[in-house]
Protein: Transmembrane channel-like protein
Amino acid sequence: RSLQLEERKPSQQIAQRRVRKRRRLRKVRRRVRKSREEEERKQHVQRRRLSSSSDDNSEDESMSEGEMARLKEEVEEKKKLIATLRNKPWRMKRRLKCLKEAQAFVEKFEGALGKGKGRRLYAFKVMMTKKIIKFNRDFENFKTACIPWESRIKEVESHFGSSVASYFIFLRWMYGLNLVLFGFVFGLVVIPEVLMGMPYGSLARKTVPREEQDSAMDFSVLFEFGGYCKYSIMFYGYYNNQRSIGLLQFRLPLSYLLVGVGIFGYSLMVVIRTMARNANEGGDGAEEGTFTFCWKLFTSWDYLIGNPETADNKFASTTTSFKESIVDEQENLKDENIHLRRFLRILANLLILCCLGGSGYLIYYVVKRSQGFAKKDRNELTWLQKNEVEIVMSLLGLVCPPLFEVIAELEDYHPRIALKWQLARIFALFLGNLYTFLFALFDEVNSKLENEKEIKNATIWALKEYYTNYTLYNNVTENIPPPNISPADVIRGPCWETEVGIEFVKLTVSDIQVTYLTILIGDFLRAVIVRFLNYCWCWDLEAGFPSYAEFDISGNVLGLIFNQGMIWMGAFYAPGLVGINVLRLLSSMYYQCWAVMACNVPHERVFKASRSNNFYMGLLLLVLFLSLMPVIYSIMTLPPSFDCGPFSGKDKMYDVIMETIEKDLPPFMADIFSYASNPGLIIPAVLLMVLAIYYLNAVSKAYQNANLDLKRKMQMQRDEEKNRRNNKDSTNQVMKDLEDLMPNKSLIPPPSAEETEIPADQLRKSPKVTGKPGAAATGKGVHVQKDVSLAAANPRAPVTRPPGPRPPGPLPGNARGPPPGQGMGRGRGGPPPRR
Structure:
């Protein structure tokens, strides 16, 4: 056996060698095959390159003009299909297939529309057009990516719906507006004064008084914007009254006045433009109450919701809205005690008027009391006495809106009407508080003007005494030097513009503090208590009291609007107020986004933000107009302070414009402005503007009436079409009147013999058609009812059997309808027999 094994070893070795040799041959053959394929591929590419020019010429010669026109039509049809593919009622798989085929066809044959060398130029133009379209699309995506806080707002929108996100969009819009106003103020007023004006300590208006220097850097003083803050670029009194400053001869007083008025002009233009754009984008073409269920069924869902909890709330909200719509008519028909309801509503309005009057009186009383505190030594006053005006106004803004909601329960209005009343009352509260504060503030301004006259007279008397004494001692009447007094020791007036600016800055800062503390305590601390004490409490804190807070959209938006009104009014007296507001809006975006995501829960009824933007913009426009009046009043009526501000030394602030016209402009320009300011021209111009507004309003109402008529006609046409399809009597009153005028069918010719021979079963089964005056639609007489359909009535019985097999379709070459004769036509005979 060992000998047999030894004899087998050489044979096994030989077999292994043969296997190795075969593997090597296979590898070599594969390499040779790959090299041949690569050479063939290279030769094929070279042949295609060489034949491309000849192919172009051959295609030009082979394609006739008819083929080119047909190819062009096909390309245009494919382009039209690509543009309208979204509107096709097809499945997505079919859409994608058609899209790929159409794109491939267009890319393949679009370049062949030219001839000869023009084809290459056309292909180049097509290529450049595609690249430009792609660049524009990428640039639009880049602009969208550059929108600030877009991802943060989208996150809030996915959790809370578009109604909460609309507040943050409005906040971002306000931030952009204030950023532009900040650029105007700092670029044209603050920076020129810092770079080209006189430095700190050179004048009395730019120097802290000697008696205030010891406490000028105390935190309590700086917190109230006194000390060095009062005599800085933040306020009106720091700016010099030189007509031109620096090497550029910059007109600082003129720039200050134009910027102060231009802020209102730019804001007015932006608000009106935004309202017009929202009006163009927000119209849906349907009136309220028209197709209510269709609109709610197909448009009520908010597709930007990405949170399951919010989606559940939105589902419940939509269901509730359907129930409310169904029950609305039943609620209107309910019997209730109308006299009791009217009494409760009158009582509620009286209580709210008492709240508004009490808040206004309280603010007026506090401002008057603060004027008395201002005459005392500030070291003797407490912190509450120093800041009680701001504290009272902020507390009224916090306490009164919830009180209004409690009182509104007596009225029992519909929720939409109740929301409008609530917004109007909060608006009246804020507006009344603001104007009460202004009236009290202007009373204080009048008292300071009286004090300023006394100080001015005392200063003039002191200067006259100095010049008289200097002349007596030195026997000099010319070139008398000014008194050598340090700017810190100069007697100065109260500078009422700076005091007004300080009050507005303090109001803004206190509003920021109260808002942030309210969020921190009312939302964050409440959420912490509900979250961590819910496990060991007697009841469910999340479902019951106090539960998580909801985001108050209307209150936050109204607070933002009135804060912007204070900025508009105070920016003229405190140029630094715009910068403070920019920082406030910037921090509010991050702070409130965090508070919403961490502390709030979605509303029980998630409303879709559709038409509320223009309502808020309308409130903003009204606040802008009301903020403009006090500033215009102070510019045109009140005299400026004699020793501070860019208008010191003038009788009125607008005298800067008259001085510029007289000294800087040519004489004919002065004449033009004098003629333009003539009341004889201003009054006709105002009357012409009023007539133009009246005419445009009348044209707008005419267009609205025309639109209503067209909608009514479209509705009538839809009703007629629906009744025609359902084979019902006409609802058009004109058609009914025409039918009543022809009781004997005198205008309809007698039917022919063929028409009179109607089968009995047809008479029995389609009485509605044969009994109508307009049924003879094929005759040559008067067509009373146009295009009357002979459709059988819709079956009203429930379906109790599955549908039978579909009958075979028409043969090729035949019409789709039934064969002529007495068959199962539309409206002819009964339904098919049951199987």
Remarks:
- The mean pLDDT is 76.
- The two ends are 89 Å apart (CA to CA).
- The CA atoms of residues 549 and 788 lie 61 Å apart.
- The chain is about 65% helix and 0% strand.
